[in-house]
Amino acid sequence: MVEGLFLDAAGMKALGAAIAISVTGYASAIAEKDIGTATIGAMAENEGLFGKGLILTVIPETIVIFGLVVALLINQ
Amino acid sequence: MRLLENLWGRKPSRKSDKKKKGSSNYPYAVTRVRAMKSKLLPKETYPRLLNMGIDEITRFIQESEYKNDVDELAMKYSGGDLAEHALNRNLALTCDKLVRITTGELNYLVVAYLKRHDIWNIKTLLRGKIYNAPVEEILESLIAAGEFTYTSMSELAAKATYKEIVEALKDTEYYPLLQKFDGTNLAYIENELDKMYYTGLFEAIGKPKSKDRKLFVKVVKLEIDVKNLINLFRLKKAGITQLDEIMLLMIEGGLELNPEKLAPLSYDDFVNELQRTQYWNAISGVVGPDMTSLTTLESKLTRYYLESTTILSHVSPITVVPILDYIIHKNNEATNLRIIFRGKETGLSDELIKDQLVII
């Protein structure tokens, strides 16, 4: 697959898939960090906000799901 | 060491303060404070409170967010005193909580803002000693929400004369000013303490570069404008036109108003000049030549200030403004409750009490 420093088509596809997953994973993490801490802050005052907070916290997870779909499409 | 500094209100050196940035926990603190704001008394509560007696109000307070404070103090106090102490205790604990839940730059700004309670406490202590008020009465009015703890202030309140209090404060930043206090110039010292607070606040902020500090400055400047405007109206109504006399009472650094320009004007010209400012819409309905009482005007201006801060907090949600907005609204709630039960205690009519309230 790898010859010297160059990648062939399969190598490029694998690299593309890796970038798609890692970048979107990182983006999700940043978004979830802020929403998660905000949820904890709200929950410290009002425990009833757990459900809403949980839903809002996982919404950025869609970003990494899109990344996963793209990675799968690249490897098809 | 930090504990000792907190106990005696010793200010950390300004240089290290300015460098103190660290990482701030904006999402956590701001959302928590917003949740805290949702627990403030809704505006529908006030008409109900006006129909109650003092004991009913105390019971109502006991069933609200002030439960712990009333329970804790019920053994020592009763009636209006109990409510007063409970409000002050709750305010102090709330401010302490705000300091605890914030970090970095946010914490620095909140601590600088809360120093206003230290100024309030020093004024109360001096006033109490000058008029020979009993220690109990002085303690009733103290709010341990700044850098001074309740214990250290109780010790100060127990001192026999104002001179001993001034001496006990010799390690604080207020000492050089307090040294000028001779027992007769209380009004001057109080004004200077206020000015010192705002100067210190602007100094702590430095030249605002970040969005957060710019918004912080805007809120503080708006507050200064409102305070200056209320004072200008009072002075104009009292017929004082001398520039020197008026400027002594003005705080520098307002947002839109220039007290030096407004001070020498006659009442009519002063009102005309105000029409060009953002405050006119808020006060146009009550300002006129036949205006006898300034109460409505003052509550309109305070309401404008509260509303403006709330709007700013919505425009910039992840900044220090929602926290300032909460502090201001919490103070307003405590003031409203205090007005209601003190008004009831002295037998004021409901209408008169209602005029004094700022209900948002």
The pLDDT mean of chain A sits at 92
The major pleated sheet of chain A works out as: 2 strands, antiparallel
Protein chain pair with the most extensive contact, residues per chain = A-B, 12 and 13 residues
Strand order in the largest sheet of chain A? 1-2
Give the C-alpha Rg of chain A. Answer: 18 Å
Sheet with most strands of chain B: none
Computed Rg of chain B = 21 Å
Name the overall outline of chain B.
globular
Low-confidence stretches of chain B: 1-17
CATH architecture of chain A: Up-down Bundle
Oligomer type: heterodimer
Query: Overall mean pLDDT score of chain B?
Result: 88
Q: Indicate the CATH topology of chain A.
A: F1FO ATP Synthase
Total strands of chain B: 0
Q: What class, by secondary structure content of chain B?
A: mainly alpha
**pLDDT < 50 stretches of chain A:** none
- State the distance separating the first and last CA atoms of chain A: 18 Å
Provide the structure class of chain A: mainly alpha
Q: How would you describe the shape of chain A?
A: elongated
The number of domains of chain A is 1
In the CATH scheme, the class of chain A would be Mainly Alpha
What does this structure look like?
- The complex is a heterodimer of chains A (76) and B (360).
- By secondary structure, chain A is mainly alpha-helical.
- Chain A has a single domain (8-75), classed as F1FO ATP Synthase (Up-down Bundle), CATH 1.20.20.
- Helix content of chain A is 80%, strand content 5%.
- Chain A has helices spanning 9-45, 50-58, 61-75; strands spanning 2-3, 6-7.
- A two-stranded antiparallel ribbon of chain A has the order 1-2.
- The radius of gyration of chain A is 18 Å and the shape is elongated.
- The mean pLDDT of chain A is 92.
- Chain B is mainly α and 360 residues long.
- Chain B has a domain at 209-319.
- Helix content of chain B is 68%, strand content 0%.
- Chain B contains 22 helices and no strands.
- In chain B, helix 20 runs antiparallel to helix 21 (321-345).
- The model of chain B is unreliable at 1-17 (pLDDT under 50).
- Classes of the chains: A mainly alpha (76), B mainly alpha (360).
- The interface between A and B is medium-sized, with 12 and 13 residues.
